[in-house]
Task: inverse folding
């Protein structure tokens, strides 16, 4: 699992580095970024600082806060923002948070499955390594047996150094087959 965590950290660092060097830190507003836009609106800050500001509030264990909303006075004939707009924005934020939570759970599940697959691959690699080692030992044994056989065949092909036995008298003596 540490390999996956290191991979994620490395990818995030590369992405942050590329954003810092290219100046491409601009956030594209999509339905996925609606939550960020709403959070920035609720906190009364820029979207690029919304997450940092929210993290500061969480770190300080602040659950409810009162933000000075600097709303320009309405032009003549326009109404000021009322509480229903803020409630609507809060509802949208809550819905977006639910989507983000679901996505986070899916990512966590995928990470767990990836870790399991990596563990299975590592186990298979260990088994393959053990099998290769066993095969190498068996090849050595076969090689040793082959050289022993070659030496034995060589010894068997050599002529014997012992003198040949002489024929016995009984074999050299002529047999008398005639009757007297």
Result:
């Amino acid at each position: 699992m540490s390999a996956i965590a290191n991979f994620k950290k490395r990818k995030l660092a590369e992405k942050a580095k590329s954003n810092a060097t290219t100046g491409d830190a601009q956030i594209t507003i999509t339905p996925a970024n609606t939550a960020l836009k709403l959070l920035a609106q609720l906190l009364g800050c820029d979207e690029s600082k919304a997450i940092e500001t929210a993290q500061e509030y969480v770190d300080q264990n602040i659950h409810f806060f009162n933000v000075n909303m600097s709303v320009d006075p309405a032009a003549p004939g326009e109404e000021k923002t009322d509480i229903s707009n803020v409630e609507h924005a809060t509802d949208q934020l809550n819905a977006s948070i639910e989507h983000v939570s679901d996505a986070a759970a899916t990512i966590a599940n995928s990470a767990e499955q990836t870790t399991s697959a990596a563990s299975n691959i590592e186990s298979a690699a260990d088994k393959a390594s053990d099998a290769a080692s066993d095969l190498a030992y068996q090849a050595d044994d076969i090689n040793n047996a082959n050289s022993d056989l070659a030496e034995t065949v060589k010894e068997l092909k050599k002529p014997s150094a012992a003198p040949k036995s002489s024929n016995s008298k009984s074999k050299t003596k002529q047999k008398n087959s005639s009757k007297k």
Remarks:
- The first helix runs from residue 2 to 22.
- Confidence is low (pLDDT under 50) at residues 69-79.
